[in-house]
Amino acid sequence: MKKVNNIAVLTSGGDAPGMNAAVRAVVRTGNYHGLNVYGVMYGYRGMLTGDIFPMESKSVANIIQRGGTILKTARCKEFYEAAGRKKAYENLKKFGIDGLVVIGGDGSFKGAQKFSQEFDIPCIGLPGTIDKDIAGTDFTIGFDTAVNTAVEAIDKIRDTADAHDRLFIIEVMGRDAGYIALHSGIATGAEHILIPERKTDIDDVIDQLLANERRSKMVNLIVVAEGDEFGGANEVARHVKERMPQLDTRVCILGHIQRGGSPTCIDRLIASRMGYAAVDALIEGNNNVMIGIVNNKIQYTPLDKAVKAKQKIDAEWFKIVKILAS
Ligand code: ADP
Q1: EC annotation (predicted)?
Q2: Cβ of 13 below 6 Å from ligand 1
Q3: Model confidence, pTM
Q4: Which of 101, 172, 187, 285 could form an SS bridge with 9, CB 3.0 to 4.6 Å?
């Protein structure tokens, strides 16, 4: 017995490449099971304003390869308030919606959790964030694309750094999580990687740069997560310039290019699989869980446990960075 008949899907909070692939999977899997599927524009804001429309297979044609989200995304203050959520509920009810798929980060999950506890509309979350900092899943939609964008950009920076014998300090996204920095730094052969999860002794970094200078190794890349303890690449550069004014030091902040672009194969794959699993979860009567992939298996995690998680980053990675950059 199907537990739902009319489901809605929305994208909320920070955007991430692959969200479109997830929307496509929800719509087409829903249609396959004979459900009516509705799209909600601009995340929770569209629930409040009633910006809701029916979707069919055709509505999601030609989007699997597109970055951004056709449903748009937004942050919505009113959804923090019970009155706002009630208005949202009433709008969904006008369409007979009895199940909701929320693609977003942990903020969006907090909203979904409150909503599903207050009203009779079950909610399923899909982790859409470039930071890969959500507990209960090995993958988040958008991380692989963001990290590959960073790698491509850093490779280009290395070329120019090499031509001029420069030190480049490159800032990548990651306010609370250093995964983009760690993965892109290792993949581009960075000399140092600074992330929020790990304390860095700036004197060690400078001592190593001085040692490199003594052996005429002039090209160095330092990859910094925006949320590192020093406050980003400009601050790290200030420390380095103070101690090593002779070095030709440049800063490059990659910024929003990391959010855009065509999703990689991995992001399309996990978004498709998670979107498909979300509809299954609603049909089976699940509520208030996030769909994750752990050890290549779909896993449900209660939304209140699928929070931003500082994961332990194995110290061995930093040994590898040091050895391989020597
Ligand atoms: P992300 O989902 O990327 O973490 P945000 O933290 O901005 O992004 O959350 C997206 C939206 O989810 C918010 O604008 C708000 O509408 C809703 N939301 C976030 N936290 C809560 C909360 N504690 N209660 C109710 N709604 C919330």
Answers
A1: 2.7.1.11
A2: yes
A3: 0.96
A4: 101
